[in-house]
Amino acid sequence: MSVAPQPQAGGISVHAVDVARGIPAAGLSVRLLRLDPDPAEIVHDVCAPTGHLPHPMVDGQGVTRGLYEVRFGVGDYYRQSGWDLPEPSFVDTAVFRFGIDRVTEHFHLPFKFTPWGFSLFRGGA
């Protein structure tokens, strides 16, 4: 009896833009966790100079069907950029939970933010 091969995961990509300054969010801390099933930290890194998060998850490595949470270190990003933020900052860590049902599809997360708010959605697949 042969076992059917698992389908190739489509991956998760992140592109972060600091819209307060109109620049890619180089150095923004991003943490991606799988919450359910089989909880695991998928990546904890910073965005490249282009604002993209470089990681093999973009090509599907470590991506399975389930519930995920992404955390963006907005407050620290602006503090490290020299902004004078209130303490505590209005947006310290932006948290977004999303589910992946069809693992073969690609999930692009365009993250647009300022010290006072953010937008995140599923971008073009």
Question: Briefly, what is this?
Answer:
The chain is 6% helix and 40% strand. It has one helix spanning 74-80, and strands at residues 12-18, 23-24, 29-36, 40-46, 66-72, 94-100, 107-114, 117-120. The strands form two sheets. A four-stranded mixed sheet has the order 2-1-7-8, with no helix packed on it. Strands 4-3-5-6 form a four-stranded antiparallel sheet.
Keywords:
four-stranded mixed sheet, about 120 residues, mainly beta, 8 strands, elongated, four-stranded antiparallel sheet, Immunoglobulin-like
Structural description of this entry:
This protein has one helix spanning about 75-80; strands spanning about 10-20, 25, 30-35, 40-45, 65-70, 95-100, 105-115, 115-120. It is mainly beta and about 120 residues long. The termini are far apart. The strands form two sheets. A four-stranded mixed β-sheet has the order 2-1-7-8, with no helix packed on it. Strands 4-3-5-6 form a four-stranded antiparallel β-sheet. The relative contact order is 0.26. The mean pLDDT is about 95.
Q: What secondary-structure arrangement, pairings included, does this model have?
A:
Layout: E1 12-18, E2 23-24, E3 29-36, E4 40-46, E5 66-72, H1 74-80, E6 94-100, E7 107-114, E8 117-120
Parallel strand pairs: 1-7
Antiparallel strand pairs: 1-2, 3-4, 3-5, 5-6, 7-8
Number of structurally distinct domains:
1
| Largest sheet properties | 4 strands, mixed
| CATH topology annotation | Immunoglobulin-like
Helix percentage: under 10%
How large, in whole angstroms, is the Cα Rg?
A: 16 Å
Q: Can you tell me the CATH architecture? A: Sandwich
User: Strand fraction band?
Assistant: 35-45%
Low-confidence stretches: none
Please identify the top-level CATH class.
Mainly Beta
Which class of secondary structure composition applies to the elements?
A: mainly beta
The CATH superfamily appears as Transthyretin/hydroxyisourate hydrolase domain
- Described by the principal axes of the CA atoms, the overall outline is elongated
* Average residue pLDDT: 94
Distance between the termini: 35 Å
SSE series: EEEEEHEEE
Spatial order of strands in the largest sheet = 2-1-7-8
What is the overall number of helices? 1
Counting DSSP E segments of at least 2 residues, the number of strands comes to 8
